[in-house]
Amino acid sequence: MEKMIIHGGAPLRGTVTLSGSKNAALPIMMASLLTSEPLVLSNVPRLRDVKTAMDLLTQLGVAARWIDDHRVELHAAKVTSHEASYELVKTMRASFVVLGPLLARTGRARVSTPGGCAIGARPVNLHIAGIRALGSKIQFRHGYVEAHAEKLTGGRIWLDSPSVGATENILMAAVTARGRTVIENAAREPEVQDLARVLVAMGAKISGAGTHVIEIEGVERLHGAEHEVIPDRIEAGSMMAAAAITGGDVTITNAPIEHLEAVATKLREAGVTVEANGKGVRIARNNGLKPVELRTLPYPGFPTDLQAQMMAMLTQADGSSVITETIFENRFMHAQELARMGADILMKGPTAVVRGPSKLSGAPVMATDLRASMGLIIAGLAAEHTTELSRIYHLDRGYEALDAKLSSLGARIERAQEQ
Ligand code: EPZ
């Protein structure tokens, strides 16, 4: 196992280019099941989760191969299995969105339920209710969801909450269903919009992606397509917080600023310069940080996937920041680790009060999820001496070449073998 060693204190300066979005790429890869023709995707990040998705598709009979560094061809000429095993789904929950496309293509699917997660319970009831509303029979047996439908039929679905994964699963199930499907209170995330774009390129009829109501007119079949995955807005926000905490000056050449409104607003409130710059964005900080209040919300609200990184940054603000996590019930695991580095964080239910500025001092730390790990790296960049982050397999699930990118900006960071 590897760990990351961060020697704090160097301001980040220079330019960096984002990788493709993990959370867009994963469901889009599953869409390859919907057609017998090849789906060619570019700007696919080289991540552990992408490898897991390739493994899952391969097990289902899809010919999955890298064409070059960031291009993948997925060809589901025949689907030879109906099962997503517990082994795979437990390592990557996003595997559960295979249910919709697998069922749509073959009429049946057996997919392990994901179980609990480090950041919250994360049930899949909304996915199931949606797939049922399209006429599928569903049974729960031996830890698996077994779905069966000769032909799915369009339906009207109102989601209790705008779940990203449920919207994606239902969308992929509905594109070849008989008739019209309406998803109300749908997720509006850019990743859902990117999935809808690739489905339309494959011949699907979808309107309203990016709004609360998505309408799908089922078509007989989908065909192959080529698609470029959007840049990763969460990687962008992470780099922005890293640049800000170190008092740096960084330009992200391909930051999707239109997807980062809430993040840019909070950074500006905190006294950080955020300027749109051609196709990218420049982040700079010369003065002290100011405290802010923020609440995580579904898109276009502030993303839960950037809460840990903002918390780390706000340890350096002059005053009390208030962070409320409304999406996941257990996503403050990083707070205790930040406290071990000297942060002053008061927890009360879903709210954390971060009192700054605290002098951070490097320490051995570890995290239980991807974004928490990134939060600790950000704290390490501003801490005195050395921070050692263990369990970095979490980071490798979702940040491509993070150490190389941060090093190119002047950070002193390296990987080492865990003793
Ligand atoms: C996606 O997860 C992302 N993952 C998550 O990113 C992200 O944190 C989350 O959306 C919210 O933005 C991928 O896209 C692969 P949800 P997802 O369904 O789809 C509840 C990361 O670090 N809910 O929108 O699983 C659920 O418990 C990851 O990259 C139900 O109650 O999130 C949560 O409280 C972590 N029933 C809320 O909705 C359901 O059936 C939002 O979850 C489904 C969800």
Kindly describe this structure:
By secondary structure, the protein is α/β, with parallel strands linked by helices. The protein folds into 2 domains: 2-19 and 231-417, Enolpyruvate transferase domain (UDP-n-acetylglucosamine1-carboxyvinyl-transferase, Chain), CATH 3.65.10.10; 22-228, Enolpyruvate transferase domain (UDP-n-acetylglucosamine1-carboxyvinyl-transferase, Chain), CATH 3.65.10. 31% of the residues lie in helices and 26% in strands. The chain is built from 14 helices and 24 strands. It has helices spanning 22-30, 48-59, 86-91, 99-106, 125-133, 164-174, 190-201, 233-245, 261-269, 307-314, 333-340, 370-382, 393-398, 402-408, and strands spanning 2-7, 13-16, 39-42, 63-68, 71-75, 83-84, 108-112, 137-141, 144-148, 156-158, 180-184, 205-207, 213-217, 225-228, 249-252, 273-277, 280-284, 293-295, 319-324, 344-348, 351-356, 364-366, 386-390, 412-417. It has a 4-stranded mixed β-sheet with strand order 22-23-1-24, with helices on one face. Helix 12 links the parallel strand 22 (364-366) and strand 23. Helix 5 packs parallel to helix 6 (164-174) and helix 8 runs parallel beside helix 10. The longest helix has 13 residues, at 233-245. The radius of gyration is 21 Å and the shape is elongated. The protein binds ligand EPZ. Ligand EPZ binds next to helix 1, helix 5, helix 6 and helix 12.
Overall geometric form: elongated
Bound ligands, named by name, code or SMILES? ligand EPZ
CATH class of the largest domain: Alpha Beta
What is the CATH superfamily classification of the largest domain? Answer: Enolpyruvate transferase domain
